[in-house]
Amino acid sequence: MSGSPVLIAELCQNHQGNRDVLRDMVQAAADAGADYAKIQALYSADLTHRDRFERPLIDATGKPLTLLRPRDAELARLSQLDLTPDDEALFVEICAEAGIKPLVTVFTRTTVSRLAGLGFPAVKIASYDCASYPLLRDVAANWPEIILSTGGMFRSEIIRAVGELTGTALTLLHCVTLYPTPLDQVNLARIEWLKGLAPRAGLSDHTLVTRDGLWASKAALALGADTIERHFTILPAERTKDGPVSITPDDLAELRRFGALSIDDRRAELAQDRPDWTSWIGVPDAEPGREEMMNRDYYAGRVASWVNGRPIFNWEDVALEVYQSYSNIAEAITSADGARPAKPDGPVQLRQGYLMPGYEMLGDEELDLIREVFARGAVLLRHGFDARRRGLYMVRDFESEFARRVGAPYSLATASATAGIKIALRALGVRPGDEVITQAFTFIATVEGIIEAGARPVIAEVDATLNMDPERLEEAITSRTKAIIPVHMLGVPADMPRIMRVADNAGVPVIEDAAQALGAKVDGREVGTWGLCGVHSFDYNKTITVGEGGMLVSSDGDFVERALRYHDHGHVNDPTLPRGEDAWDGLGFNYRMSEVTAAIGLAQLRKLDHIIAANHRNFRYLSERLVDTVPADIRPVPERSEPLNDCLTLQFETPSQVAPVTAAMAAAGVAAKNVPNALRWHFARYWSHILSPFGMGDVALDKLTAQSRYYLDRSVAIPIQVRQSEAVLDEIAKAVQDACAVEVS
Fold first, then answer.
1. Domains recognised in the chain with CATH numbers
2. Which terminus of the chain has a lower count of CB atoms within 10 Å, N or C?
């Protein structure tokens, strides 16, 4: 015999706001054998107005990205169903009289402590808040028993949610957020995966009762589900919004009877009544599709806690730091059909290309500053229109705030870091025939910038730090060397004191490519501030992001003035003249940043300290679990340096150890970062297509990059992200350890 399952009668809003109906429903649920009767703490006063639900967003193919659910219509409906605090207190009393446990779904953070004080022994968190980690922490601090629905969530989010709720008596409910859910999409196999994460797991069933009866619930019980949640009503189905997916007292009694059987007997009975029931099992690793993501988008933003007239959503912490943003959800909607999850017994999936922190932190702060641009004249160009823009200069503000943050006197916002490299070289006066030295391990953009500026690229080797080898740099300098571009790769600073000594002795200026290392330091000094200038990147996969953009910083005002003119068509930008009458100063091009882009950058920059702190914390946690447990060393860093720690790079003794380990990691859903996965775009050995005009074909590149290949072929970079919980990091550590064990065996 299996243990009798927990049955939850979800009253939802089927009570229609009527106390007498509510009392009768509770008694009927108790009489039919339910363990819990549940209400929702959802109030019309908490509704928000969001344009995306008034006028749905449409993608390039004409498909909707958001639901059409106007606030006024929702307000009219919900205002008829509101329960007051007195009603909720009465509900607890009614349940006690009926001999059934009261349960409540909490929808806003500001109601948590009040609801906990009413005597609810357990709390339910709806699917759409599974990734609302601040709400989870609030709930965990107030209730020992929590039931969490997981519909519309990616596996990585569920794993983190479980980590946030450590120490509670947790039940996870599988749920497909389609209303109603077709039987062939209930995907019951997910329940078994959930049982590996929590003591109890079950199904929140939203199938259509008139068409599919109790079959999905019974199939879940036949698969060993511990808990079943069903909408419940004593009214005709047509009388309530949730009526079509709501079961009756007789249905509930039937589930109680079926749940009292052993699992073998459940399966035998189900096989006799519905021989096709196993076809609904599905696969455990299916991730949410487009429609589910649209539902999630709506419900995650439908209500909020209102504080001083501002809506605070459940995914925002008290400092208004966004943990789950609408931009991320919208992106997930557009790509949901192609999502590929981790294996059922594997860790969180780290998708290639989503490997640095900035995109994790996009949210309403960015939207608020964009709205400010439009509210104050909608001037999108950084220059001119002074009267119309009413004193708002986002690009200038971004440049100023960024310069202060990194400790540089001057800064220049650019269209990209790639453009920044070219701008710096042109401002330096690089001409055809000049040589510019960079390193073998970098993104291809560094070399592209050198070529675009008209110079000849010279490739220097990297050492065990995977950054420029100062000794090999010295060997590469000639009388034609015009600049040196060390690159701070994968968040680790190059050995700037040694590189600067070599450069200064040769009288050659240094341009730092700091695209991958914003926040890293050497001797307490930010990368990008050691040489003549530094170039930072804000593309979608960088420490902070604006989508596409960059920043050049320097302590040389004349140099920055030349860079400013070149990046703006040669404009002198004489403040005494209208822009159309301005003079020019030689050749230029358009590499400007827009006001909207800078608005995003300002909001992101204000989150940088949080991002860096989270990187350091998660790096320490993961490294402690890998040191001495895998046959590899952690990548060395230069003395007195403070890496960004956005990845942890393992270096093995032989190249033959890497391929089996990365293959096993990939099978477990752990993606390597650039090394070795995207090495073709980050290693000069593969770039004969652009370097052969400079005498560097495949054979020459083999020789020029032999030392670099020695270190790169032995390296595996594991990404570190801001929102990784300890549970997720434990999963990653185990995957790496298991992968190494497979290789060793």
1. 6-294 (3.20.20.70), 617-744 (3.90.1150.10)
2. C
